[in-house]
């Protein structure tokens, strides 16, 4: 009688393999997720850093725009040493706006052209002074705003000080918007870079315009006389009018005077 051999059937190890595979895969998934998370975290930090820097830049821009009036004027002067008026904005008194033009013999002779607006004197340095010829365009470099109380100063700033030289009150008076729109119109014109106005001074009269040039600094303007009844190409006002509109003194006589102030840079 033949002996029947029992066959040993090997059980498949698929389950074990799958279990191993599954168990092997799980850590890799976790590692991948960890890697992804860790990769994302720095990006989030960078993003937050960018947002933070953007906020800072916005804050800087906002703070620069919100700078107090006459801050630059005050920064350039030491009022423990100078007799110059401190840079403060007075309360509005009426609707009349004033202007002043001061002849200033600093490092180079020029005319300081100042227009009252929003409680300060918007100021430009005009190297050759104003011209009654509508064809002539005079460069006007915008400088820091000055206080309204500066309008009465005539005297000498010692050499070496900020703006050192002789200052003459060359002309003064009132002015208004050319279109009759008042301060709001003047403000729009200034911001746009097309400031049109009518002057009622002793020496400067009629319609004028200040036009901002398209330059990187935004400080270069042109002072131009409009064509009207007061325009006169033959009248060289800066050559003909050489004395103070207030004291009738020449620049030399003012330089010899006793009214002197000191200021620092």
Describe it.
The chain is an alpha+beta fold and 265 residues long. The chain has a domain at 71-255. 29% of the residues lie in helices and 28% in strands. It has helices spanning 14-65, 71-75, 182-192, 237-240, 251-255; strands spanning 97-105, 109-117, 120-126, 137-146, 155-157, 165-177, 194-201, 205-212, 220-225. An 8-stranded antiparallel beta barrel has the order 1-2-3-4-9-8-7-6. Strand 2 and strand 3 form a beta hairpin. It is globular. The termini are far apart.
Brief summary:
With 265 residues, this protein is α+β, with helices and mostly antiparallel strands.
Describe the structure using short key phrases.
eight-stranded antiparallel beta barrel; globular; 9 strands; 5 helices; 265 residues; single chain; alpha+beta; 29% helix
């Amino acid at each position: 009688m033949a002996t029947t051999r029992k066959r040993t059937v090997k059980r498949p190890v698929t389950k074990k393999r799958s279990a191993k595979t599954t168990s092997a895969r799980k850590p890799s998934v976790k590692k991948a997720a960890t890697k992804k998370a860790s990769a994302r975290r720095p990006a989030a930090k960078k993003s937050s850093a960018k947002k933070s820097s953007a906020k800072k830049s916005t804050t800087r821009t906002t703070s620069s725009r919100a700078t107090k009036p006459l801050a630059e004027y005050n920064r350039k002067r030491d009022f423990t040493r100078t007799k110059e008026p401190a840079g403060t904005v007075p309360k509005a008194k009426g609707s009349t706006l004033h202007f002043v033009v001061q002849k200033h013999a600093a490092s180079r002779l020029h005319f300081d052209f100042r227009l009252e607006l929003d409680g300060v004197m918007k100021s430009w340095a005009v190297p050759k002074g104003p011209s009654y010829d509508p064809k002539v365009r005079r460069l006007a470099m915008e400088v820091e705003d000055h206080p309204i109380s500066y309008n009465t100063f005539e005297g000498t700033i010692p050499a070496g000080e900020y703006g050192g030289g002789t200052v003459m009150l060359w002309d003064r008076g009132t002015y208004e918007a050319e279109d009759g729109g008042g301060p709001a119109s003047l403000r729009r014109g200034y911001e746009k870079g097309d400031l049109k106005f009518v002057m009622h001074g002793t020496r400067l009269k009629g319609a004028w315009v200040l036009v901002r040039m398209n330059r990187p600094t935004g400080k270069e303007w042109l002072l131009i006389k409009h064509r009207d009844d007061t325009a006169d190409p033959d009248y060289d006002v800066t050559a003909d009018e050489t004395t103070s509109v207030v004291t009738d003194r020449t620049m030399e006589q003012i330089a010899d005077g006793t009214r002197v102030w000191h200021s620092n840079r």
